[in-house]
Amino acid sequence: MCVLRNGKILENYGGPYIIAEVNSSHNGNLDEAKRMIDAAKECGASCVKFQSWSSDSLYSKSYYDKNPLAKRFFDKFALSSESLLQMAQYAKSVDMDFSSTPYSTQEVDFLVDIIKAPFVKIASMELNNYAFLEYIGKKQTPIIISTGMGSIDEIKTAIKILESTNNKNIAILHCVSIYPSDIESMNLNNITMLKETFKDYAIGFSDHTKGSECAMAAVALGACVIEKHLSLDSKKIGFDNEMATEPKEFKELVKNIESVYKAMGSYERILSPKELEMQGKMRRSIVAAKPLKKGDVIRLEDLCAKRPAVNDTGGGGEGRYIPPSDINLLVGKKVLKDIESNTQILKQDIKF
């Protein structure tokens, strides 16, 4: 289980917490970013999530020296801390959870101490960045961590490092870091494996596939967090627009996820009142297979079973008809009145 700073609870098989991942689909435009927050809200997402990075926190100078266009590209798509704060405030104004993925300790501090996000999202790329994991863990804030590109041993080590900070408020997301991911690579049974391996933690799914099928299946497997990329226009140039979901499809995804969650229901066998009502219509009751006279001693061949039926919960009167399961109780009993062939036998017609 993971309890967010705003009190929301993430637990396996619980109500899905759906994160609309914006990443850089806003193209560095704050008005576009606000429209994306509005879209996430309209779609029914639980949270809108950004990325807290700058060109300096992503790549080394030597990389940019060899790829000068990359720095200009990243600078264009990055949001400053002040802009992120504005987006957090805007999300709050429309009653939307807001969080981000930080890529430096300064960005962690800003997200936790200034924005006061309900959780910090740790990207898959940080699984082996032990010092960074420890720093985030020591902030004693709820953590949602993705596991793409990581072996199970790497995931275990990352979780142990977070635990070593006495921070056990963690949700772990199954993730495949391919953009977009192909269905054959998803291994959704890893969700079950993660639940069994990390029994104390909430398990979710960061979905990079196209469509909603994998997210729906993940919820059926017990995932309580679903992260899906959102874009207002998936045809635009961007880091992840190709596999991002546009609002119309995202809204349908949320609807489908919630339907699957409702359909999962209870582990215990439960019959609803509506289904119990169907017993009287669909089940059989004992019927005379041939005419019976008052005083006849009933034989098995005198009986058969046909619709309708009523059990002891009601319908045509408590205990009025006799269920097929009691057929042997009638054998050897006397008939108290004449009964026509193909007529239901009532309890009051028999001397028990």
UniProtKB/TrEMBL annotation:
Q: Which InterPro entries match?
A: AFP_Neu5c_C_sf (IPR036732), Aldolase_TIM (IPR013785), PseI-like (IPR051690), PseI/NeuA/B-like_N (IPR013132), SAF (IPR013974), SAF_AFP_Neu5Ac (IPR006190), SAF_PseI/NeuA/NeuB (IPR057736)
Q: Which GO terms describe its molecular function?
A: N-acylneuraminate-9-phosphate synthase activity
Name of the molecule in the record: N-acylneuraminate-9-phosphate synthase
Instruction: Identify the CDD domains for this entry.
Output: SAF_NeuB_like
> A GO biological process this protein is involved in?
carbohydrate biosynthetic process
Please give the organism.
Helicobacter saguini
Which SMART domains is this protein grouped with? Answer: SAF
Query: Transmembrane residues, as ranges?
Result: none
